[in-house]
């Protein structure tokens, strides 16, 4: 068969144009006579690739000069340790627990100090975002931590928490570059590339410069110290070069789409098609409190395990793949990242509607 | 122009067949309807990719069941910290300093305990391997550490050190899979993929099982604890999936070439072409003590900075690229990894000979 509509939560769909370009350049990158995979990371063509990627990312988000952009490895899971190792000078930090990934980050934080869970939505299977307007922020907290979009549960912080002046650290893996964002509200924003940005194996950190220092926790590995890579423009050692190259192509593609304003509008339209259908469906039901719904990850259920399974199987036959929900929520989940075309969402809703009628 | 002969020290040349296959599969991996970059790491096709890669690697080296194979991130530089964090129970380790990378590993080891430099060849710009038959191995050493092939200096341990019963840990980044190896002589063998195995962003650890425990140093990040990934078959979090896929293709290619016996023989032949020429040349001179020469990285000089620069520039024009030596040795360096065809080495020697005659 041809290309399917891939609703995977991550690694996830990438723009077809990006993949086609990468394929065409695989044996010979623009007349250099070799693949990007074979290039020294100190070579001129690669320097241009990584510098252009950073410049385009800065332009897309509007990153001011007092923020550093780092291309790192190890995924968000490794930043769960890097964040406290680089920031926990008072050995206190506040975590808002809105899902499994926030919880993992919190547990990792506890290795290094007093990581406090100051709010949680675990009581209702993380199906909402807690009220964060007046939380008991710790007076000596080094930072307040959130996972901004919760891939598994389909929630998103549409309003950032009131951190009462403390630095905000956000894992944005599953909503990176999905809409315009005011980076100055964040001290650290980071995310794994493999959902909205590129292949697995790249994590991008955007860090306010004053937080990048030698004053890290004792025992911090050189590679986890942000200053190591900041001083070397992400080239302290060999970076995940091919992944960065693909990310760079995605940044260009996002610019071609009109930038984050346009992308955000398109993502709202795409999500509305699915949520509007869910809200009137007699068979399918969204699992998330309406005001906290993610534009990227949309979980839904029928209420029957057999029907859920039948739906996932039949959808796959129809070229709509990876719709099985995460085991902790059950049912289905459609991840509709930047690269998922509107036509894919329309086809999904059409298929859901047909399934609903067949099972009425 | 077409493909060049790429003598880069890493990232480095990959087999053209591997790249061509990857290009052909970029938009649709074997009828799955998506790229490997877009695949969930929990999906069946990816499970098959990583399991086949591991099985082929085990077959190539002959890895017994009591060794685990891990596909990790962060390069060798991150393992410089992971090694002591996972192994330094007595807080003592012995390092043999044969180049910049061994030295970096040693310095990183000192963050975690008493890392002792028990031998060094720094006195002669690391141009030889010290006699390691009777070293002052520390009685309470948790391990003895070497960098087996020194990319920058072009030396290799042709005999492993006598560790007097202590566990041997070896960084084999630049000689990985270049010849047959008895893995049972090592406690830990690891290497970055970007020289002989695949793209940057993957590091492969082969670890004797009894060394993979929860008994790690306090403060070890979950992602640096080997047991985390060992328990999860390298899928604790999203792995560098596309890189692993390319590594897997290279393993298949190595098997097609006849395995490590055949590859080792070919690498000896290739290196001999270059070393034999150097040994009779009146212009070019190898920089390494003969008995310690690497099969992979061959540094050489003319003795004149201007001639060196002219050589590098003219070679590039002739399609022989990335021959500039590392600044700490100067001159030239030809990295002739597995994927460098014999024809590439022959062309290099032919070019050197022509250059020598022109400058006689």
From TrEMBL, chains A, B:
Pathway: Cofactor biosynthesis; pyridoxine 5'-phosphate biosynthesis; pyridoxine 5'-phosphate from D-erythrose 4-phosphate: step 3/5; Amino-acid biosynthesis; L-serine biosynthesis; L-serine from 3-phospho-D-glycerate: step 2/3. The modification N6-(pyridoxal phosphate)lysine is found at residue 195. It is an enzyme of class 2 (transferase). Signal peptide: none annotated. Its cofactor is pyridoxal 5'-phosphate. Its main location: cytoplasm. Belongs to the class-V pyridoxal-phosphate-dependent aminotransferase family. SerC subfamily. This is Phosphoserine aminotransferase. It comes from Raoultibacter massiliensis. The lineage of its organism: Bacteria, Bacillati, Actinomycetota, Coriobacteriia, Eggerthellales.
């Amino acid at each position: 068969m041809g290309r399917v509509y891939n609703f995977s939560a991550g690694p996830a769909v990438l723009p077809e144009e990006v993949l086609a370009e990468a394929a065409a350049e695989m044996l010979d990158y623009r007349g250099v006579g070799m693949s990007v995979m074979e290039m020294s990371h100190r070579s001129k063509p690669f320097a241009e690739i990584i510098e252009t990627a950073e410049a385009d990312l800065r332009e897309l988000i509007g990153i001011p000069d007092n923020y550093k952009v780092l291309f790192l490895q190890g995924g968000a899971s490794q930043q769960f340790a890097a964040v406290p190792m680089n920031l926990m000078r008072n050995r206190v930090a506040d975590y808002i627990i809105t899902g499994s990934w926030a919880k993992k980050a919190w547990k990792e934080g506890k290795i290094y100090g007093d990581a406090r869970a100051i709010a949680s939505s675990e009581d209702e299977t993380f199906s909402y975002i807690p009220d964060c307007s007046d939380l008991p922020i710790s007076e000596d907290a080094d930072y307040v931590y959130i996972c901004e979009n919760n891939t598994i549960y389909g929630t998103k912080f549409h309003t950032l928490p009131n951190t009462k002046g403390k630095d905000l650290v956000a894992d944005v893996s599953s909503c990176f570059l999905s809409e315009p964002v005011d980076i100055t509200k964040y001290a650290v924003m980071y995310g794994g590339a493999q959902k909205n940005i590129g292949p697995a194996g790249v994590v991008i950190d955007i860090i306010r410069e004053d937080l990048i220092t030698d004053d890290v926790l004792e025992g911090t590995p050189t590679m986890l110290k942000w200053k190591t890579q900041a001083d070397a423009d992400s080239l302290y050692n060999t970076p995940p070069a091919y992944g960065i190259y693909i990310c760079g192509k995605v940044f260009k593609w996002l610019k071609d789409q009109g930038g984050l304003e346009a992308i955000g509008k398109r993502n709202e339209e795409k999500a509305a098609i699915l949520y509007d259908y869910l809200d009137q469906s007699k068979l399918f039901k969204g699992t998330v409190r309406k005001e906290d719904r993610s534009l990227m990850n949309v979980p839904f259920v029928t209420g029957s395990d057999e029907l859920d399974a039948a739906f996932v199987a039949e959808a796959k036959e129809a070229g709509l793949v990876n719709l099985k929900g995460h085991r902790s929520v059950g049912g289905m989940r459609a991840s509709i990242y930047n690269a998922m075309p509107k036509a894919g969402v329309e086809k999904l809703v059409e298929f859901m509607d047909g399934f609903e009628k067949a099972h009425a």
